[in-house]
C-alpha cells in the first residue's frame, strides 16, 4: 500500500515537472522494515541463549526467538520509526500539503496520521505483524495485534499506545463532550480506503490553495483504484466545469449518474448535464458559460472534512478550514 501511495505522489506531480523515481523511497521503506525485524529479534531473544555462550547463528530461528508480545511489537515500532528515524506528526504545519505526499513525508520525516500510518503498516506487515488502519473519528489510528492481544497506537504521536481513557478523550475532542466510544468507532479501513483518505487530504489542501488542476489530477488518479466511486465522479465533473472543460465535465457527470442510487441527486445532476449539453451545442457566450459553471459548482459546496474515504461522497467539494 505504501508503494501505491508513492506512485500516487509521483502521478500527482504536474505534467510539466520531472517525475521523481519511487525506487529510492521504496528502499527506505524496506530498510525501516529490516530495522523493525532486527529490533524484534533483539527483544525476543531468549535470555538463557543470550548469556550461555551458545552460537546463536547456528541455531534454528524457532530456537533463538520467541513470538513477540504485543508490548514488544509496539516498542519495536516506536523505537525504529519514531525514535531512531524521527518520523513524527507535523503539528506546527498540519495543513501543509507536503504532509499528505508520501515522498515528501519520507524526506521531511513529518506528516499526517494517515501518511505516517502507512510507514508503520508497511514495516509491520513485512515483519509478519498484524496491523489494521482504524477509521477513528477525526484521527487515523492503527490497531496492532500479537499473541492474541491488541493495542491501538497513534502514528502521529510516535506510535504511543492509547487505552480506553485516551481514546475517549480523543473522541470527545473531535465529536463533542457527549460522545461515547462505540464499536463503529473502531471500523477497520481497507487498503483502498486508506489510499483514498490520503488522496482526499491532498485534494482538500489543493482546493483551499486554489490549485484546481492539482485537485483534478488527484481525483482522476483516485478513480484508478475506485472506478465505481460515485462521489469521485461527481467531484471530477465539478472540477472540470470550474476549469472550463465542458466536454470532460459532461463525461464525469454522466459516469456519476450511472452509479448514483439517490433519485433526487441523480435528477439534479441530469439537469446539470442537459444545461451543459445545451451550452456546448450552441457555443454559449463566455460570460453566460462562466455564470452557469459557477452555479453548477456552487450547488454542491457544502461542509465536509478530511476524515475518511466517505468524505469523497458527492457533496463536499470546498470544505471549510
How is this structure best described in words?
The protein is of the alpha+beta class and 321 residues long. It has two domains: 2-189, no CATH class; 212-312, Serine Threonine Protein Phosphatase 5, Tetratricopeptide repeat. Helix content is 56%, strand content 8%. The chain is built from 14 helices and seven strands. It has helices spanning 2-12, 23-44, 47-51, 61-64, 70-84, 102-108, 113-126, 164-175, 191-208, 212-222, 230-242, 246-259, 263-282, 286-298, and strands spanning 88-89, 110-111, 130-134, 141-146, 149-154, 160-162, 188-189. The model is unreliable at 46-52, 54-64, 288-294 and 296-321 (pLDDT under 50).
Topology (SSEs and partners):
Elements lengths: L1 H11 L10 H22 L2 H5 L9 H4 L5 H15 L3 E2 L12 H7 L1 E2 L1 H14 L3 E5 L6 E6 L2 E6 L5 E3 L1 H12 L12 E2 L1 H18 L3 H11 L7 H13 L3 H14 L3 H20 L3 H13 L23
Parallel strand pairs: 1-2
Antiparallel strand pairs: 3-4, 3-7, 4-5, 5-6
Helix pairs in contact: 2-5, 2-7, 9-10, 10-11, 11-12, 11-14, 12-13
The spatial strand order of the largest sheet comes to 6-5-4-3-7
Calculate Rg over CA atoms. Answer: 23 Å
What is the total domain count? Answer: 2
The helix/strand order is: HHHHHEHEHEEEEHEHHHHHH
Oligomer type = single chain
Low-pLDDT sequence parts: 46-52, 54-64, 288-294, 296-321
Q: What's the story with the biggest beta sheet? A: 5 strands, antiparallel
Strand elements, count: 7
The shape, in one word, is globular
Mean pLDDT figure: 84
Backbone structural class: alpha+beta
C-alpha termini separation: 28 Å
- Approximate strand percentage: 5-15%
Share of helix among residues?
55-70%
Amino acid at each position: 500500500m505504501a508503494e501505491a501511495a508513492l506512485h500516487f505522489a509521483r502521478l500527482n506531480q504536474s505534467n510539466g515537472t520531472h517525475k521523481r523515481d519511487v525506487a529510492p523511497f521504496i528502499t527506505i521503506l524496506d530498510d525501516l522494515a529490516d530495522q523493525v525485524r532486527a529490533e524484534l529479534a533483539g527483544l525476543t531473544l531468549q535470555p538463557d541463549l543470550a548469556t550461555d555462550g551458545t552460537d546463536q547463528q547456528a541455531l534454528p530461528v524457532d530456537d533463538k526467538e520467541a513470538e513477540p508480545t504485543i508490548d514488544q511489537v509496539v516498542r519495536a515500532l516506536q523505537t525504529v520509526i519514531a525514535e531512531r528515524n524521527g518520523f513524527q506528526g507535523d503539528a506546527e504545519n498540519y495543513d501543509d500539503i507536503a504532509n499528505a505526499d508520501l515522498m515528501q513525508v519520507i524526506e521531511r520525516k513529518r506528516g499526517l496520521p494517515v501518511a505516517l500510518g502507512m510507514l508503520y503498516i508497511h514495516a509491520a506487515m513485512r515483519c509478519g505483524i498484524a496491523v489494521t488502519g482504524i477509521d477513528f473519528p477525526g484521527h487515523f489510528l492503527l490497531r496492532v495485534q500479537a499473541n492474541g492481544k491488541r493495542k491501538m497506537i497513534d502514528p502521529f504521536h510516535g506510535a504511543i499506545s492509547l487505552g480506553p481513557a485516551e481514546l475517549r478523550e480523543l473522541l470527545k475532542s473531535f465529536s463533542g463532550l457527549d460522545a461515547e466510544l462505540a464499536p463503529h468507532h473502531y471500523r477497520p479501513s481497507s487498503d483502498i480506503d486508506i489510499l483514498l483518505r490520503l488522496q482526499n487530504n491532498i485534494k482538500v489542501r489543493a482546493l483551499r490553495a486554489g490549485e484546481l488542476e492539482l485537485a483534478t489530477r488527484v481525483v482522476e488518479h483516485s478513480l484508478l483504484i475506485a472506478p465505481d466511486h460515485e462521489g469521485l465522479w461527481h467531484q471530477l465533473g465539478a472540477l472540470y466545469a470550474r476549469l472550463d472543460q465542458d466536454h470532460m465535465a459532461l463525461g464525469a457527470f454522466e459516469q456519476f449518474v450511472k452509479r448514483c442510487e439517490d433519485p433526487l441527486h441523480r435528477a439534479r445532476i441530469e439537469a446539470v448535464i442537459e444545461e451543459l449539453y445545451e451550452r456546448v451545442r450552441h457555443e454559449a457566450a463566455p460570460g453566460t458559460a462562466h455564470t452557469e459553471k459557477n452555479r453548477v459548482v456552487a450547488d454542491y459546496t457544502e461542509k465536509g472534512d478530511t476524515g475518511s474515504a466517505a468524505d469523497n461522497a458527492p457533496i463536499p467539494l470546498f470544505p471549510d478550514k
